[in-house]
Each structure stands twice: as structure tokens, then as C-alpha cells.
Amino acid sequence: MYNFEFRNPVKILFGKESISKLSGEIPTDANILMIYGGGSIKRTGVYDQVMAALKGCTVEEFSGIEANPHYETCMKAVDVVKEKNIDFLLAVGGGSVLDATKFIAAAALYENGDPWDILAAGVAVEKALPLGAVLTLPATGSEMNGNSVITRAERQEKKAFGSPLVMPQFSVLDPECVFTLPDRQVANGIVDAFVHVMEQYLTFKVNSPLQDRLAESILTTLIEEGPKVLADRKNYEAAANFMWCATMALNGMIAVGVPQDWSTHVIGHELTAFHGIDHGRTLAIVLPGVMHVKRDNKKDKILQYGERIWGITAGNEDERIDAVIARTVEFFESLGVPCRLPEYDVPESTITKIVDRFKQSEAKIGEKQDMDYLEIEKILRNRL
Amino acid sequence: MYNFEFRNPVKILFGKESISKLSGEIPTDANILMIYGGGSIKRTGVYDQVMAALKGCTVEEFSGIEANPHYETCMKAVDVVKEKNIDFLLAVGGGSVLDATKFIAAAALYENGDPWDILAAGVAVEKALPLGAVLTLPATGSEMNGNSVITRAERQEKKAFGSPLVMPQFSVLDPECVFTLPDRQVANGIVDAFVHVMEQYLTFKVNSPLQDRLAESILTTLIEEGPKVLADRKNYEAAANFMWCATMALNGMIAVGVPQDWSTHVIGHELTAFHGIDHGRTLAIVLPGVMHVKRDNKKDKILQYGERIWGITAGNEDERIDAVIARTVEFFESLGVPCRLPEYDVPESTITKIVDRFKQSEAKIGEKQDMDYLEIEKILRNRL
Fold first, then answer.
1. Mean per-residue pLDDT for A268-286?
2. In whole angstroms, what separates CA A124 from the centre of its chain?
3. What pLDDT, on the 0 to 100 scale, is given for residue A39?
4. Which of A9, A210, A245 sits opposite B221 (nearest CB)?
5. Which residues belong to any copy of the Fe-containing alcohol dehydrogenase-like C-terminal domain (chains A, B) (predicted)?
6. What is the arithmetic mean of pLDDT over A196-214?
7. Partner residue facing A209 (CB), from B11, B221, B256
8. Quick check: A216 pLDDT over 90?
9. What are the boundaries of each domain within chain A?
10. What is the pLDDT of residues A286-304, one digit of tens each?
11. What are phi and psi of B94, to 5 degrees?
12. A183-382, what's its fold?
């Protein structure tokens, strides 16, 4: 395994009625800005639970964070932060709200010009407001890491940044929040968590048997528990197991000492930028193409994944890899998530646009940094 | 799964030559007390590496921490802390040195009388000196948690305490430290890490499939990598995998939301207190007895462990449980660790002394808090 550094100080408060513990985690004299999305938290009762827990605290609100949160929206929240002297941000929602809150935390204290540079130019975050989270949708893992992805709508650009300074001080995970989620969000969340694991696991072998098995543990449990959540939204135990899998998938624990890919995400972000396709769904589209085109780079790990997760051992290596890809697609489709571009009405011309972007940037991505625009084109054409 | 809270802010610096990164983790103006054991770090070169990394820093030394560190020795270190105005403790050694350092950190700032109360009366730690660690022996997991076990030699008592305030700020894990360890310490470390997992895993089912699989991942990897380390001490990859398993076994990650046992440890501590038997070896003695006597409480988990770890599926439940216990003993013995009391020259009279202690304290232990002195006697007699 590689040398590594690891630190994850996020405090997790997990379980039934855990939202009530919120106030103990925020300084009593804080000026809180509660950040949320389109108002579903009011329908589900989470808003009321949060407000009850924060009784006596100074709380301002900022709502309207959209899926694939917009830079433009975040900057409006930054104005509120400055105007109201906010010193603590509380994200209440799913990954989009959490990602937005992280960017707002960094942008509010950014002093070197346009905060867009944090995303587009990779300028390091030097300070950020403290933040906490109440997670309502298991999927992105944002509740226990310092990563954030923001979209600049006007430019159809989706960019990521990361900093330990925007890790939540705490995240409240109440599995009962899953009870009110629509099928589509549950399915997206399962795929998202699954592909997060794959990005850190389906690379090449570096003799890291523990990390491999931990990753496989999350995959197996998602395959086992995910469909139970879809079948019965009030199954608390299944919801809890799914929720904890999604957090563990991206809190850094399975990433230590191993190579990471993330090409599926980078390509998927382009599909969201151009067509607004749900993030999880873009991953279900792209991953099978990455597995197909990078079957040489990833051979050993694809075969290990196929054998340990799906019991695929018959046939020569190429046949087994094809079977593994087919089985993965079958799993995503069983959740109601289609895996091909035409099923999302994406025209072939979009492939040209995306490929052009990668050609111009001369970026090479993937665990070996060897995936160029030509391979990205092959991957996307494989998904037609 | 149960509700839980989890937070582990320890920074891990893992890998070859990671000791050189030490100075970046300690405030430059700190008055450091470097705490170590009997001087093996001088023979192995770790002492020189640490001193080179701390060049320019103010470093006092306190050596002589023994295995199963003594309260009496720790209190001498507390005197040095006060005398020299120490404000940062650096533990360099194995679990004993780390545990001692944690107690010294808490005792040095204890203001309510005799610091022994932290151990014997469970008085909460309210403040502690900051500490860091350079781990030389994978085993106890102390490098990534807030737990400590201290022995009061004059009273033959071994007591534990825990506090987030004594979690190391950082721990340096260089697998090359394993190269110079004697067989006995490697074997003890493998057993110690293995039984740490068992204490958190071999209880009763609470529908926690992810935690179960994470625990099984560590067990499987220890079984696979441990013997490689014993066979070839210079196998860096095996040493690294073993080292990371030992840390992951007790950093809280597999304990979230599940019941925990720890009766093997509590009983094992008594064997160390009376006979000075190595901690890991006491666990190898006691665990098979606990599995035998608590076979009803633990039935489902013993059968799952037997099937998933050892492939034991033949026979009725009692036969399978017997086979699982035998296979576990066989594993410990294959490492050179005997599992019966007479092999350590422990007389039957010691059983009486230990049972009397539990009878007098009226303590009940184990994951259901239902193990009394009568069962403890059965467990120990099973190990004759």
C-alpha cells in the first residue's frame, strides 16, 4: 500500500430522534444561518424538528439551494452571511445543500478576489466559517468529508473543491429521513454511494487487502440493503444500514493508501452540466463505459470485484469482464436507473461537446492519469 | 443497529519514513517530553529518527515505561512534567508507552486529589496535556483511540480509563518498525488485534451488516497477513497491512451502533495482574472459554464467524460452535501463542483469587452484563 495521511474529525450523531441533539453541538451565542433546499424539509417535518432543537438560538434562514447547487445561489447566501454577521452555517438537506454550504463557508471568508477561483483555479481555502449538517438524503457522503461540487449555471460548468476546513463540525444522521424520500432519490443515492466505492476500489492492485475488503463490505451491503429500502420505505433498519453505507463510502476510510480513479465522476459531471441529469444517474451511465474501455488498466480489480461481489468465475478474462459489467448494469437497472445515454435523451452531439472540452483542457484523468479525450469519447460512445 | 455517536480526530501519518514528518505536527515552541520504554528504540534506530525529526525543538526524556505500565512509573513522569513545564507529550513505543502517556497527560492536570481515582473510581477527565505518538508495535490500537490501561503493581490491580481528551493529536505509523520486533511481540500483536475485533463483533445480532463485514474484513486480513509477518519480518507490505489492521481494530469504526463484550479483556487483565502474562496471551487463553461458556448468548454470531471466516458449516449448532472454538485456538497456537493456563504455569489457586475479586465486586460483565463470578469461574476452569 502507499504511504498516506488520514484525519477525519467529523462528529456523527446517528439514529432515531438524533436531530434533537443538535443544539448541544452549536455554540449557544452563534448567529446561525440555516441553509436548505426547496422546502421539502417543511413537508417532512425535519424543518420543525430542527427549529425545535434550536429553540432559543439566533437562526436566520436561506432556502432555495437547487440540485447540483449553483454558484450564483451560493453567492446570494454569502451576501446574507455578511449582512447578518452569520458565524455558523447549518446545512439541512442532501448532498447539494451540504456542498453548497461548504462553498458558502469558504466563499464568505475569501479575500483574494472572486471565490469562483476556489472552484475553477483550485485556489486553496485558507479559512472558512464553521458548519454543521442535518442530512436528509443518504447518497453523496458529503456529511463526513471536506468535498463539494458546485455548478456555474450560466457557463454549464460543474467544478469540485475540497478542504479540511469545510468538513462539518458534526453531522446528524436520522435514518427516519429516508421514510419520506421518493423512489428516484433512494435509487440515485444507492448508485451514488456504490460508485463512490468503485472510484476508490476499481483501480489497480497495490497490496491493500484490508482496504479492498472494507470497500467490498460496503458494496455487498448496498446490494443487500438498498433494494429493501426501495421495497419498503419504512424499514428503519434497512434505511439505517443504507445511510451508514453512504457515509462510509466517502469518508476517506477506504481511500487510504490506495490509488483512486474518479473519471466516472468527472465525465458524469459534464452530463449534468449539459443536460441536468441527476448526479447518481450520470454515474450509472458512465461507469460501465469506463469499465469497458479501461478493462486492461483495471483487469485484476474487475475480476476480483466480479468474483467477490457477484460470484462470477466462469469464462476467460474478457468474458468474465463482460459478465461483470453486465451484472453491474443489471443491478443499477433493477433500482430503476437506466444506464444508456438515449434513455436520457442525450443526443450524440453532446458527446462531441464534452470531448471538445477535454481536448481543449488537455486533461488526463483516472487512476493512472492516462485517460485522454479519445478514451473519453470511446467511453461515451459505448453508452449510446 | 443502535443509535450512536462517533468522532475520531486522530491524524494518522502512515508509511515508510513517516517519522521524519513528526516536527510538522508539534508546535515549534512546545516543551516536549518524549516518553519511551526500556531502550529498544535506541537499538532499532527509532530514537535517532525521532531526535533527527525534532532537531531544534526542546525535548526532555522519560524512559522506563514497562509492559503493562505501572501507575507508580507514570506518577514519576508526572513529576517531570511539572518540574520541567512540559506542555506536549510524545509517546514513542508500543501500546504500553501510549497508554502510560495518556494517563500521564490526564494525571498531570488532575486537580481533584489522587489521579488513581481516574482509573479506580472512573472520575471523568476534564483536561489533559496534548500528546502525539510514534508507534513501534502494532497491537493495541491505542494510537487511534482515547483508551488506556494502567497497572498498580503494589496492589496487583489493572484498571482502564478512556477520554476523548487523551486521543493522540497524531500518530506516526511506520511499518518498518515491525522489522525489528521479536516473534513473540508480533504474535501477541496479532492476537491482541484479533481479539479487539472479536470483543466488538462476537456478541448478538442487531442488524448491522456493514459493521459485521468490516469486522470480518479485519479478521480475515489478520489471518492472511499475520503469519506472513511472522515468517518474514522484512516483508514491508505484510507489515503495513498488519499494522493498519491493528489500528482499524480499535479506532471505534467497527463499534458504532453495535453491542460490545470486553469480558475477555476484563478477565485477561486479572491474569496479567497476578502473573504478569503478556496482555495478548491472556486474551488467547480467555477467549475460547468465553466462547464456550457464552455459546447461547453468542450463538448466532459464533456461527456467522465460523462460516464467514473459517468456512465451518457442517454439523449441528453445538458441533459447529465446538469446531469454531477449536479452529480459533488452532490459529492462536499456529502463531506460537498457547491457549491454556497450565502452559503459563498458572495454578488453580489463581482462579479462586480472581473469582473472589469478581464475587466481592459483584460486577457483571459482557455484552448483556450477565456474566457473573460463577460464569467467570467456569470460563477459567475451561482453560485448565
1. 95
2. 21
3. 84
4. A210
5. 187-382
6. 98
7. B221
8. yes
9. 11-176, 183-382
10. 999 999 999 999 999 999 9
11. -95, -160
12. Dehydroquinate synthase-like, alpha domain (1.20.1090)
- Half-sphere exposure of residue B116: CA atoms within 13 angstroms, side-chain side: 12
Neighboring chain B residues of A240 at a CB cutoff of 8 Å: 1, 257
Q: Which chain B residue has the Cα nearest residue A10? A: B7
- The ipTM estimated for the assembled molecules is 0.97
Q: Do B241 and A11 touch (CB under 8 A)?
A: no
Closest Cα of chain A to B224: distance in Å? 9
A213 Cα to chain B: minimum distance (Å) = 5
Cα A72 to Cα A8: distance, rounded to the nearest angstrom:
30
Are residues B161 and B151 in contact, defined by beta-carbon separation less than 8 angstroms? no
CA distance B307 to B314: 9
Chain A CA closest to residue B225: A209
Is the pLDDT at A153 greater than 90? The verdict is no
Yes or no: say if B4 and B253 are a contact pair by the CB < 8 Å rule: no
Q: Are A145 and A247 in contact (CB under 8 A)?
A: no
Distance CA B244, CA B12 (A): 10
Chain B: closest CA distance from residue A357 (Å): 38
The yes-or-no answer to whether B11-176 and B183-382 have a common fold is no
Please enumerate in sequence order all residues whose Cβ is within 8 A of that of A53, keeping only pairs 6 or more positions apart, or say none. Answer: A19, A20, A21, A22, A23
Q: Name residue A361's amino acid.
A: S
Q: B264, B251, B259, B249: which is closest to B215 by C-alpha?
A: B249
The grid cell for B259 is 453491542
Give the type of residue at B29.
D
Beta-carbon-side half-sphere exposure of residue A344 (alpha carbons within 13 Å): 27
Could you read off the pLDDT of A235-262 as tens digits, one per residue?
999 999 999 999 999 999 999 999 999 9
In chain B, which residues have their Cβ closer than 8 Å to the Cβ of A304? Answer: none
What pLDDT is attached to residue A49?
97
pLDDT tens for A122-151 read: 999 999 999 999 999 999 999 999 999 999
Residues of chain A found within 8 Å of residue B254, distances taken between Cβ atoms: none
| B216/A210 Cβ within 8 A | no
Which residue numbers in chain B have pLDDT < 70?
A: none
Which B residues in the span 234-263 are in contact with A, Cβ-Cβ below 8 Å?
Answer: 237, 240-241, 244-245, 248, 253, 256-257
Instruction: Give A13 to chain B, closest Cα distance, Å.
Output: 5
Whether B220 and A213 lie within 8 Å, measured CB to CB: yes
Return the C-alpha cell found at B105: 497527560
Are A210 and B224 a contacting pair at CB < 8 A?
Answer: no
Closest CB from A4, A225, A241 relative to B15: A4
| pLDDT value of residue A156 | 84
**DSSP state at residue A169:** S
- Ramachandran angles phi, psi of B134, nearest 5°: -115, 110
- For residue B3, give the chain A residue with the closest CA: A15
Tens of pLDDT, residue by residue over A335-351, are 999 999 999 999 999 99
| pLDDT value, residue B115 | 96
The residue among B3, B8, B225, B229 with the most chain A CBs within 10 A of its CB, best to mutate, is B3
Q: Do residue B8 and residue A8 have CB atoms under 8 angstroms apart?
A: yes
The whole-number pLDDT of residue B39 equals: 83
